[in-house]
Amino acid sequence: MDLALLNPAQFDLPTIWFVLVAFFFVGYFVLDGFDFGVGMSLPLLGRDDTDRRVMINTIGPVWDLNETWVIVAGAVLFAAFPEWYASLFSGFYLPLLLILLALIARGVSFEYRHQRKHPQWTRAFDRMIIIGSVLPAFLWGLIFANVVRGLPMDADHNVTASLLDLITPYAVLGGVTLTLLCLVHGAVFIALKTDGDIRGRARRLAAVAGVPAAVAAVAFLAWTLNLETFSGQPLPALMAAVGAALAMVAALVANAVGREGLAFGAMAATVGLAVVTLFLSLFPHVLPSTSGEGGLTIVNASSTDYTLTVMFWVALVVTPLVIGYQIWTYWVFRRRLTRDHIPAGAH
């Protein structure tokens, strides 16, 4: 084999890293997405503390591992596209800060809700889990919708939009869409990971929430493909959007006939393809400008070829290890949970 063929400099490095950024964000929304959905489901499925404990235990061994995907995505974004990273954090400082605080509150609640045997203590942390699940899902949808639509920027690529400029009908629809998709994703995961009465209730919740989620997703993706500021790849984005819609239908059908494994896989595909649609709607831009100034593309936002090349080899070694460890973790904790697994008096 000619080793020169393995030289990443022979390929379009900014494009490779755009794909890798998209990959890590897809992984984050697919994995942490059902974590959000489980948290949202606490008041909808949990009839008592034992039910809520069962639901939390379904994600107990994996939620923190799922959350690391956004850390990796952020680190990759910072190293590969520093201009994109800087503009995002300057333009979305408050929403990103709220996401961070919500994730901290959710993580603390998982660890502390059972530290005292007092109903008010437990309910307070349950509320933090719910808020820490709904708020990030909505705000991530809001942020990505604004990124795809584009924002006003100055000549130095600083976002000049105010907070109110971020709250548009399209962006709000993006937030609602991701929230509903996460709710269905989480309900399907609970049905996959539990048995008994809670399993049936989770399937019914997925069926009920699936209808408005599908309607919102179709409306949002159709709106995305018809934005006046659309600057991406029309045909690939359309194909990904159609794939997301078909996967959503497959998920609802599989859930209706009790095939939770297929339903969960189809929901993962739905969320993943929806995120892929957004990235395809951007490429080769990473943050379009609506103010007449030049927006950010994969070329003017990327690091040097040397930096991207070194990172390529690091990613080539580390990424398979991360994926392998994640698969192993899910395999170890694959069994279904029931109320019988919760000791009497546990919180």
From TrEMBL:
A Pfam family annotated for this UniProt entry: Cyt_bd_oxida_II
Keywords: Cell membrane, Electron transport, Heme, Iron, Membrane, Metal-binding, Transmembrane, Transmembrane helix, Transport
Record PANTHER family: CYTOCHROME BD-I UBIQUINOL OXIDASE SUBUNIT 2, CYTOCHROME BD2 SUBUNIT II
Annotated source species: Nesterenkonia aethiopica
Name of the encoding gene: cydB
Entry annotated with the keyword Electron transport: yes
Main location: membrane
Entry-linked InterPro entries: Cyt-d_oxidase_su2
Official protein name in the record: Cytochrome d ubiquinol oxidase subunit II
Topology in the lipid bilayer: Multi-pass membrane protein
TM stretches of this protein: 15-34, 54-78, 84-108, 128-147, 167-192, 204-223, 235-254, 261-283, 310-333
Taxon lineage: Bacteria, Bacillati, Actinomycetota, Actinomycetes, Micrococcales
Protein family: Belongs to the cytochrome ubiquinol oxidase subunit 2 family.
Annotated localization: Cell membrane
Entry superkingdom: Bacteria
